[in-house]
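Thread: "does anyone have the structure for this chain?"

Original post by V.I.:
We have the sequence but no experimental structure in hand. Need at least a predicted one for the grant figures.
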Amino acid sequence: MLSESICCKWMARELYNNSMNPRAAAKQIFSSPFAAMLKNFQPLGIYFVQNRWALSIGLLSLLLVDFLLLLIPLVIRKAIDLLVRQTPETGSLLFQQGMIIVAIALMIALFRYVWRRLILGHSRRVEQGLRNRMYGHLQTLPISFFHKTKTGDLMARAMNDINAIRMASGMGLVALIDGTVLGLAAIGFMMSIDLKLTLIALIPAPVVIILTKILTRRMSTGFEAVQRTFSALTERVREAFAGIRVVKAHNRETWEYTKIKEQGERYVAENMNLAKTLALFFPMMMIFTNSGLAIVILLGGRYAILGNITPGDFVAFISYLNLLTWPMMAMGWVTTLIQRGSACMRRINHILEEVPDITDPAPMQDFSGGEMPEGIDLKQVEGEIEIRDLNLKYPGQTDYALKGIHLKINGAETVAVVGRVGSGKTTLLQTIPRLLDVQENTVFMDRRDIRQIPLKTLRKNIGFVSQEVFLFSDTIRNNVIFGRRGIDDRALEKALSSAGILEEIQDLERGLDTVLGERGITLSGGQRQRLTIARAIVQPLPVLILDDALSMVDTRTEEEILNQILSLRHDKTNLIVSHRVSTISRANRIVVLDKGELVEEGSHDSLIALGGVYATLYEEQRLEEELDLED
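Reply from O.Q.:
Generated one for you, tokens below.
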């Protein structure tokens, strides 16, 4: 480990750079609050088990470094005593002691490299494993979780919080073990030299313990506040960058800058509150450790003059006292690292403890007591969908989004869903792939309750194009293929052609290998929509759901694209939502929703003849199209 004043300076710099507040002493380390902090780290146990051999070798190397550091004062003591005696062999013996120190230094360098490589490497593996685990768990959580959780908050936890956990599982572990072993061993060597002088040197220790305990109480809440403001700042900055085009279009740069500045000032203010505690700790630590040194020099020098201890013992005692400075600092630092990591781990645990609302079916018990496979594996999906008495209410809402829905869609049938804004069209379609969960025995796929079908099996057979268009900052090819295998260029071009965008892509300089900007900003809104449609139809999936997926193109283009898609998928099940009722007359059947209820059902002609909601919508759309043509 680092030694003497160099270690203190290094640690002070690290603490300031990482906005940490040291708050503890040896007694605090083993107290019940510390045990409570460690409880938050239980999810990391698996990584310590996985890396146990590297950790064992690293910790052994760390202990060897401590042992070698403790040997140096003994060598110095012998060298000083040799100087005092002034024998003819003094010169050669001093040379031997010097070479011993050089050899010890080389061994310290070797073992220090080993422990840093293995223990800090372990902390990086913890960071990697926890980040992957967190992201994997986030993918299992329902859409409602992301509605109530800000993206900036998730980014702060995935970056800042996990970084603090890495520090706790790496340097925190080092400081805990190194500080404890080196401190106790140094005190033991000091007592072997002179017990009375050791007790006098440790007089400031209780004061340090009490003061650091007081300061530690302020840390947990303070650090939580810093993390909250950091999350808010991250979210604010993310929104500012994502919405920069809107900001510039409305000339609101100054307004947006002011919001970022205010949030940044709040973050700085919270960090400054923590910095005050940090500013108190180090001067306090140095005052009491140096006051102990002053007492030792005063009394120990007198003992050496009177012959109670040898000059070598006196110098060795001071060396051990200097070594004790690092453990005292380490106790404060390790508590800071552990407490900071514990607060961050608590925030991560809140995410890991989130239980997905939508899960795969649990294994069923057969009559022999064994477990049957989870759910039903549909070998070949025909695309038949049936909805029986479906009622759905969003959390926190009093009114039903869907009420008493009965609907049967045969395989290879094209059904259009129409209705006014807020009538429940999107909600209805999202229940089919279980993006929204439903009660048992209400939604069926091929006569099987979708709650008994594994999510992977259900969703891999459904192509879903939502109202929200999202493209990745990647090539056009990768955005359409979307990581799926077995899709050649012929199938890719066929899908793009059916979506009415192949020619526009071929006109680009790099064609399918053109890299899109953030969220596909380099394309127009209509182009982005058509590209997401191509993503959904590039494979001949049994079921295709288009949720108002062509709202950004004109009526004629929408009609042409739908005609191509329906021709391509004439033997597959298709569900289409569109506000332009004139473009869905080709559907085998049209269902009409109004205020969450299915109010009409039939063909285009029969619904027009009925003169109900659909007829009213159709007439309104027809008048709007005529006005558009006149314009």
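V.I.: this helps a lot. The first strand starts at residue 385 and ends at 392.
O.Q.: and Residues 111 and 434 are 56 Å apart (CA to CA).
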